[in-house]
Design goal:
Layout (H helix, E strand, L loop, with lengths): L1 H7 L5 E7 L3 H14 L7 E5 L3 H7 L5 H10 L2 E6 L13 H8 L4 E7 L10 E7 L9 E6 L2 E6 L5 H25 L10 E6 L7 H13 L6 E6 H10 L6 E4 L1 H12 L11 E3 L4 E3 L20 H13 L3 H16 L13 H10 L2
Parallel strand pairs: 1-2, 1-3, 3-12, 5-10, 8-9, 8-10
Antiparallel strand pairs: 4-5, 4-11, 6-7, 11-12
Bound molecules: 1,4-dihydronicotinamide adenine dinucleotide and magnesium ion.
Keywords: Magnesium
Protein name: BY PROTMAP: gi|472586130|gb|EMS23658.1| homoisocitrate dehydrogenase [Rhodosporidium toruloides NP11] gi|647397786|emb|CDR41047.1| RHTO0S05e11166g1_1 [Rhodosporidium toruloides]
Family: Belongs to the isocitrate and isopropylmalate dehydrogenases family.
């Protein structure tokens, strides 16, 4: 359903491009080139938009109103590069990506973590579906002095509404993934009945995680062909390292999802490889998982790995209903990895542009 709405908005591809800071703009340029080169989609157009720390330093706002307005009024999707966030508090600054997710109600963060057939020794083929709007990230923290020292508290919000919609998203994704596998005849990676694993800790947090678990289970009734599992988050992490090949679609409250998805990314090598999308009912924004990589951002020519952004663009297309073009891009990326035509973070010698060229040629 959610995905259906996205598919309907996808007849034109007018894509807001928010490069941000550091390597963000250069990796998004790579993604744009691939979107321009891939056959089978309407000719995309791009709307360059501002956000980030550099923009904040120039103007005093990290996420200008014009960016949000342009996304809402003229774009059918967006790509987000990365922004730098100082670790110390800077008055007036808060991360634009968090604000954007809220503004556009992009309530799901979807992160597929997949190994490359014929390259990685370990078979990993899972998708983490992370709730994006609540949990401890409502950021309601207090601190007070008490006779025994300071006590800090944080509110954790879990709502039936948010848990239900993220649950539905996970079931839709499990079904769609199974369908894609069937169509493409892929035998690599996880196969079997579509399965959703609910990640929680309701043995301890029986009220909050209890509600999450119960809400997702209630949605499961709408999806009789999808198997439902559940796993306590700590033992899930154990399984993630021991037998990642057995995991497929995981649905998590915000904090667990944040941790599990970064951990899972480590199973397939460089941060420069892992894509994500932020998804709502009527908008989608692709985003590489990595940050602004300030340590390599000034290199000329750029050596930032563009593959996470290129895969994020493919994932965005897949959610918009362009399954075949997305698959073409995934295959081209996998091929460049198998051939070792990659940037230095993966042991290669190529620049950002050269890797992009290799991918485009294989489309
Ligand atoms: P990072 O992901 O920027 O970098 C971690 C390491 O991975 C670095 O050594 C970097 O060179 C490498 N790396 C990352 N992306 C790469 C790519 N595409 N190609 C090759 N190597 C790559 O994370 P870090 O260093 O913790 O944070 C740097 C800045 O990025 C901080 O200001 C942080 O707040 C921000 N950040 C932003 C995110 C976002 O916008 N969504 C996410 C994570 C961090
Ligand atoms: Mg994270």
């Amino acid at each position: 359903m959610a995905m259906q709405a996205l598919r309907e908005s996808a007849k034109t591809l007018r894509i807001g491009v928010i490069g941000g800071d550091g390597v963000g703009p250069v990796v998004l340029q790579a993604a744009q080139r691939v979107l321009e080169a891939v056959p089978g989609i309407p000719k995309p157009s791009f709307v360059p938009l501002q956000a980030g720390f550099e923009h904040f330093q120039k103007t005093g706002t990290a996420l200008p109103r014009e960016t949000v307005d342009a996304l809402k009024s003229e774009c059918t999707a967006a790509m987000f590069g990365a922004v730098s966030s100082p670790s110390h508090k800077v008055a007036g600054y808060s991360s634009p990506i968090v604000a954007l997710r809220k503004e556009m109600d992009l309530y799901a963060n979807v992160r597929p973590v997949k190994s490359v057939e014929g390259h990685d020794p370990r078979v990993v083929d899972m998708t983490i579906v992370r709730e994006n709007t609540e949990c401890l990230y409502v950021k309601q923290e207090t601190i007070e002095d008490t006779p025994t020292g300071r006590v800090a508290r944080a509110t954790r919000q879990i709502s039936e509404r948010a848990s239900t919609r993220i649950g539905r998203m996970a079931f839709e994704i499990a079904l769609a993934a199974a369908e894609v596998k069937k169509q493409r005849g892929g035998s690599y990676g996880w196969i079997g009945a579509p399965t959703v694993t609910i990640v929680h800790k309701s043995n301890v947090l029986s009220v909050t995680d209890g509600l999450f678990r119960e809400s997702v289970r209630a949605v499961a009734k709408e999806y009789p062909t999808v198997e439902v599992n559940e796993q306590i988050v700590d033992s899930l992490v154990y399984r993630l390292f021991r037998e990642p090949e057995k995991l497929s679609t995981l649905v998590c409250p915000n904090l667990y999802g944040d941790i599990v998805s970064d951990g899972a990314a480590a199973l397939v090598g460089s941060l420069g490889l892992v894509p994500s999308v932020n998804v709502g009912d009527s908008f989608i924004m692709g985003e590489p998982v990595h940050g602004s990589a300030p340590d390599i951002a000034d290199r000329v020519p750029s050596i930032a790995n563009p593959l996470a952004s290129i895969r994020s663009a493919a994932l965005m297309l897949e959610f918009m209903g362009y399954v075949e073009p997305a698959a073409k891009i995934y295959d081209a990326v996998d091929e460049s990895i198998r051939q070792g035509k990659v940037t230095p973070d993966l042991g290669g010698k190529l620049s950002t542009e050269e890797v992009t060229e290799v991918v485009c040629k294989q489309l």
